[in-house]
Write a structure and sequence with these properties.
Blueprint (H helix, E strand, L loop, with lengths): L10 H8 L11 E7 L5 E7 H11 L1 E4 L26 E6 L5 E2 L6 E9 L10 H14 L3 E13 L3 H6 L17 H6 L1 H13 L4 E6 L5 E6 L2 E2 H21 L3 E3 L12 E8 L8 E2 L2 E2 L1 H21 L21 E3 L6 E4 L6 E4 L8 H17 L24 H9 L2 H7 L1 H20 L3 H7 L4
Parallel strand pairs: 1-6, 15-16
Antiparallel strand pairs: 1-2, 3-4, 4-6, 5-6, 7-9, 7-10, 7-11, 7-12, 8-9, 12-17, 13-14, 16-17
């Protein structure tokens, strides 16, 4: 890993700020220890600063292992081997990564530390998203590479609070913009107090903020961050998603990262990724242009795209984005600066990278980056040959289709030999069950669509 960002805190910095006088503006009295769960959410505890120094720093802290075995409503569900009534719902340890200490300026006197999950014998919890990514990072390192990535998250802002949205059943929400404000300065100005607060808070939290811009759907925006090593990018992504919602609430607004909020444009999370060699040089480009490593990496991502779609699109709603002519991909194809393809190649020289356009705003960054690394390394290890590029409209091509439903993606994942090889049986079974839980819940639900069509007229 690279050296921590200069705006992150060292342990000495954190200790000094916890021990500062009560009237010191740099005082830290609350330390959040958090990990990212299956659904991509930060979960953990708020610790009193003095308790953190006196007890947790030496002895650690724990949480119930059901935290990686629940649905989105935090209900315990059947089918997970690592956690159940039969095993007694024991604990996991939050293994703090002291290279991730950051100040959260939107919360009073608060710092956050991100964690890995380990069992009480200190063995890694292999189903943990951060551990899954760490495993693929090590595979890349063993092959002589480091992976760098950037995630581009879109979201929709509403002039409705989260509480009002909940009470209204998420009906009649007022978007903060009433028309398409793609690249519109005036459209961005309307919500600039919120966007500026998010940008500056994330900068203070150690992220390199690039820009904010409007998008196509009503109230839709994007804030971009500079690329970094894949683990740093995933950590930053998780903190940003949580903080953006918290800051929106402080402004009396709400925002959603749903992949598809309505029948208009969905919210994507395009992921840019490249490899560097042991000398820090780009592995995707040389004086002759694209390298064999680059082509093999792309070929591997394409070859595993259908098998790994569950990690790119983990929810029922994720698949509503995949529509022809929507700028969300429907075909497993690659092209040079071609936004109709699942994989778009951009840049040259040191900026050469691929863009995976499959993930939506609801993606778990650790899982998606793990899938991209695992697929690309599979291509390199097997010397896969890259098919010809897709020229023109991939939507009308005869290329294989991206899975169109969670059920289809679940089947591809559960039956994938490659997934079992690169992720292991425990991970495949765990995330197959995650899909099964969501499918069972959705199949049992009566939707607004059914009520409108059936209540009177059928």
């Amino acid at each position: 890993m690279t050296e921590p960002h200069p705006r992150l805190l060292s342990l000495d910095d954190l200790t000094r700020r916890i021990e500062a006088p009560a009237d010191d503006p740099q005082l830290i009295d609350t330390v959040i220890v958090a990990f990212t769960d299956m659904q991509g959410r930060l979960q953990g505890k708020r610790l009193h600063g003095r308790y953190f120094l006196d007890v947790v720093l030496e002895h650690g802290t724990e949480g119930c292992n059901y935290l990686l075995s629940v649905d989105v409503d935090m209900n315990t569900v059947d089918g997970y081997e690592m956690s159940s009534w039969e095993t007694g719902y024991g604990d996991m340890e939050f293994a703090m990564d002291l290279g991730t200490i950051r100040v959260l300026e939107h919360l009073p006197a608060t710092a956050m530390i991100q964690c890995d999950l380990v069992w009480l014998d200190h063995a890694p919890v292999v189903q943990s998203p951060r551990t899954i990514l760490a495993t693929q990072v090590k595979r890349a390192a063993d092959a002589g590479f480091t992976a760098w990535a950037g995630t581009e998250l879109e979201f929709i802002v509403f002039d409705t609070t989260y509480e009002q949205a909940w009470s209204s059943g998420y009906r009649d929400l007022r978007p903060s913009n009433q028309y398409n404000i793609d690249y519109s300065i005036m459209g961005g100005t309307r919500v600039e107090p919120l966007l500026r607060d998010i940008r500056n808070t994330m900068y203070a939290a150690g992220m390199n903020v690039e820009a904010a811009k409007g998008e196509c759907n009503l109230g839709q925006h994007e804030i971009g961050f500079l690329y970094d090593e894949v683990m740093v990018t995933a950590d930053n992504h998780s903190v940003y998603k949580t903080a953006a919602k918290e800051i929106a609430a402080q402004h009396g607004k709400s925002l959603t990262f749903m992949a598809k909020f309505d029948e208009r444009e969905g919210s994507s999370c395009h992921i840019h990724l490249s490899l560097r060699d042991t000398d820090g040089e780009i592995a995707f480009w040389d004086e002759g242009g694209r390298t064999p490593v680059y082509d093999q990496f792309i070929a591997g991502i394409l070859a595993t795209m259908r098998d790994f779609t569950l990690l790119y699109a983990p929810n029922i709603n994720s698949y509503k984005r995949f529509a022809d002519g929507s700028f969300a991909p429907t075909t497993v194809a690659w092209g040079l600066d071609n936004r109709t393809c699942a994989v778009r190649l951009v840049g040259h020289g040191r900026s050469a990278r691929l863009e995976n356009r499959v993930p939506g705003g609801d993606v778990n960054p650790y899982l998606a980056l793990s899938a991209m690394l695992a697929g690309g390394l599979h291509g390199i290890e097997h010397g896969l040959e890259l098919e010809p590029e897709q020229a023109g409209n991939a939507y009308t091509s005869d290329k294989p289709k991206v899975p169109g439903t969670l059920r289809e993606a679940r089947e591809a994942w559960a039956n994938s030999v490659v997934a079992r090889t690169v992720f292991g049986e425990d991970v495949v079974r765990h995330y197959t069950n995650m899909a099964d839980v969501e499918l069972k819940a959705f199949d049992a639900a009566v939707t607004d669509w059914e009520l409108r069509r059936c209540f009177e007229r059928l």
